[in-house]
Amino acid sequence: MTEQVTEQVQEPLPDTVALLVSRMGDEECSVRELMQRCGLKHRPSFLQNYLQPAMGVGLVRMLYPEQPRHPRQKYMLSVRGLLLKNS
Description:
By secondary structure, the chain is mainly alpha-helical. The chain is built from four helices and two strands, in the order H-H-H-E-E-H. The chain has one domain: Arc Repressor Mutant, subunit A (Orthogonal Bundle). 45% of the residues lie in helices and 7% in strands.
């Protein structure tokens, strides 16, 4: 008989996601504010390489998740994102 050990393999975060999480505060921020905090200017690249991956792993969430194109959409760290930032 062999013992099987299941271990949750946690892949390291991409540098882009780690930078975004480190620059976000506890408050809600627009895409423009987040781009400024990260020192970026190209919105499509920011969305594709920073914001969407961070949301995909559950570190960032939307203020209006049911309306992604809401005119006053803002983003904030999720509970998981806050734990990561504070650790």
